[in-house]
Amino acid sequence: MNTAKPLAFLNGGGAMGELIQKKDWSKSPLGLPETWPKSLQTAVSILLNSQFPMFVWWGEDLITIYNDAYCPVAGEKHPDLLGKSGREGWAEIWPDLDPLVESVFSGKTTSSEDQPLYMNRHGFVEETYFTFSYSPVWGDTGKVEGLFCACIETTGKLQAARRLEESERNLRATI
User: Which of 30, 94, 117, 151 could bond to 132 as cystine, CB 3.0-4.6 Å?
Assistant: First the structure.
């Protein structure tokens, strides 16, 4: 457990800021937060202070750091997802994500609207939909060092639209 003084880039970070501060990062490829590159500290500060679900995957291992608003997306994967490789944490949807991640690490921003993802976040695989953008985070060396994601779950919106369409079909059939 890290009991060092609070780090400025975690200010305003809510529960996840506290969890990042308390986590033992000594065995992580990232090392201790006070040694993280400025670009990672800045990305983490931005996401922690947002009310939209966001995360960063950092380095070759795609180490996951996310904000409070992302916790419902993570479901039962939280809090173990913090500090875990994105490949491992989201293994069930990795075939869908891998091409997008590869594109980002080559320097291209990607976005997806109402992307279907069959996620296991509550102990079973469920059909979900997300609108999200993956952006490269450039490091001090001029290379892409990480991926920044802002996302919103659109499952409820799409399910409501399906129910409305079905209701309209049923009404037409009745008439």
Answer: 151
Cβ–Cβ < 8 Å for 119, 94 = no
Q: Taken in order 77, 34, 49, 53, is the CA torsion positive or negative? A: negative
Q: How many CB atoms lie within 10 A of CB 142?
A: 7
37/76 Cα distance (integer angstroms)? 29
User: What stretches of 15-174 adopt beta strand conformation (E)?
Assistant: 54-58, 63-66, 110-120, 125-138, 144-153
The answer to whether 105 touches 144, Cβ cutoff 8 Å, is yes
CB 144 within 8 A of CB 107: yes
Both tokens of 2, joined, read 């890290």
- Per residue in 30-58, pLDDT (tens digit) is 999 999 999 999 999 999 999 999 999 99
- Rounded Cα distance between 109 and 111, Å, is 7
Residues 122-173: pLDDT tens digits? 999 999 999 999 999 999 889 999 999 999 999 998 887 777 777 777 767 8
Identity of the amino acid at 97: L
0.85 surpassed by pTM: yes
